[in-house]
């Protein structure tokens, strides 16, 4: 591959920083998009970081994380289209990741509560799941989510509002 | 909707709560909230939910990542430290450091074995660095690369030798990696609070550390033992279904002993692996971190983990009782059991895709989970119970006779029942919050309340961090009050069973109905996990209260940490039933269809003693009831506790009998020598009873207590074949056969699940409620699972 050295000589540092901070969460996010395919997600994420290195630093400086999510999301969507598996989220795989680990006492209760919430999230429509995860798992603002997903800010706000409302009702019904 | 008006369902409210608004929009919402406390409350609720979401999602397992490697044009490699790692629940980290260690070793191993041109760039730095560091690389290559003969490589790895795993070709992988380095112990510990595994593995594999590697050239012989910190007691999970026992030989043995729970295919077998003082890692060729990682490998690891979930459920070991020789033991005595918890539990296991653990299968509870059409005691009869005896060939051993003892208790109608004073003792601890638990408990209690009369009373006691009276004793005519109290229950806090039980008994006592049904109904997953509550203490308490005629019914819910033995013991001591409720359907069966039996006891301490005729019977075995056996002299001792029978209940017990003259069955416990002084062959039998096969003696106390009464029911064998038996008999035999088969997993079992299904099908002609058909599905399921 032909790589352009980053313009900034501190490039290694900030990219390294980005990798350390965001590789695993990004990997998880992409794996969700790919229906729980962590292997494929790894390739996509690797590819994303490679592309990040190829970017002139000035281009991405300041919003590198958002840039990474956007690039990886596009790549993931491509993969899904190409392989004709547009199921946004597969059942099973992620549920297992978040399955309850039996432990005594409070830790277990917390874990169970979390697992129950994850389960409810998994039942949301795919687009709501994605924005909920970007908001509450990856910590993006409405605006950033809007740029990553190509949805309008008000659309993002609406989806999050609907999802939170739905989850609140279900949590109340289940007395989590 | 105008901009100046905000209703509680406005997306702007959510945006505001999440801090997404600014400027004018923010001020607008702020003003609206200041004016309307409802909106303020809504914002609080949204923020609470947001906090829960961030918490739940933040704790969701992060995938294992390898450091991304990027190359600059000059070939200078940029290495990045490993990803930001929060506390993870998924035990990838077990393998993590070792996987990386495996890679590091692997690279050198490859270069030592066959420095492939295309890989030299990868392996190069390690080898080069190794030689630079002046360390020797020793490799003994196996005679044939295709054999499974372990390949032993001894190598010293300098720190620089750790190469990026992303470039590792995993097609040749070590089946086991043993790093023999005690000094670096702490480096290998995996810290849940956020350790960087690659970093630690690099440190471990730094200069002068000898790495021994034994590799099998067998891509599928994957075995991965994951070090869990240094804990040598917790079961480890194994990540490959391809684990075969002979993999054990690839794992070197050192000092400490680690017990590893084996994988799905080898069942519950434990593999004991001795470890060096710190760690052994075996990296499968499909280890997640490798390029060849695949979905199957991932899934199997998940499966292995879900298997370990099972292990936290508690089951007392069941001691099987084998064949008894009539000559030595003509009497067989046991206390009845109308519990059916084991059936629902077995069903749960099978529907979840696992064969149940052996000790979760109680054959008598399986048999008694079904009702049979036995004749009731004749009206006006002195006894509340009637024994229905039947004998025919045992379907699994036609030369043996199968004797069925079917007890039927008198039916009572709701109107004729004594008034009830019930206290629901509900576990609302955090462990109960899953959908199969508290919501199901509430539904079950609603069903039960629906069966009660207006003059019955219900109180609700909850227990969690502290116990509380959620509902004082309330007449059922105020049904809505009871239902509202049920609806209002929320889970929270940890379990403290005993203080809740105290309170429940106090409430029951305060509202005691003389001559009525006074009962505490305990609903829990049995996870009494706080405080110093000893089981003995609880048992004594419950037994003590039973003497004051407040009985206990224990209903188990949920999965995962379900404590079967605790609940059964408590129910037995409390003169009550023990049920396991896994669905609304089961709740309906137990609490609606059998409500009179659950509520009203018609006979207490019901014991059965069977005396076999030595002229006709050579040996016998009681099927199931393994924890209900009594000594012969206990039968007439009213102080000895036994099971209670509720109105309309049926109880079924089966004996397999070897007639005189048939081949003697092999007894697992060894044989008894012929007696020196007594001649047993031919035995002397009273001529007036010589034609009988056996006699069933039944003892029961009246529900209000007092002296027990004895009833005798002799049985004459008419020599019927299994085909001639009644449908009830066939079905009970099939259920027993199913249970025995589930307990006896070995290939040598002499009948198949298909046989069981045929027997059950023959008995399904009567199927009130459709419950028998379900057994067929379970048998089919068990058959599939046993062949996996």
Report on this structure:
The complex is a heterodimer of chains A (176) and B (788). Chain A has 176 residues and is mostly helical. Chain A folds into two domains: 11-82, no CATH class; 98-174, Winged helix-like DNA-binding domain superfamily/Winged helix DNA-binding domain (Arc Repressor Mutant, subunit A, Orthogonal Bundle), CATH 1.10.10.10. Chain A is 73% helix and 0% strand. The model of chain A is unreliable at 1-9 and 86-108 (pLDDT under 50). Chain B has 788 residues and is of the alpha+beta class. Chain B has four domains: 11-58, no CATH class; 87-311, no CATH class; 324-412 and 602-666 and 681-786, Immunoglobulin-like; 420-597, von Willebrand factor, type A domain (Rossmann fold, 3-Layer(aba) Sandwich), CATH 3.40.50.410. Chain B contains 20 helices and 26 strands. In chain B, α1 crosses α3, α11 (438-450) runs antiparallel to α12 (479-487) and α13 (497-510) packs parallel to α14. The two termini of chain B are 60 Å apart. The relative contact order of chain B is 0.09.
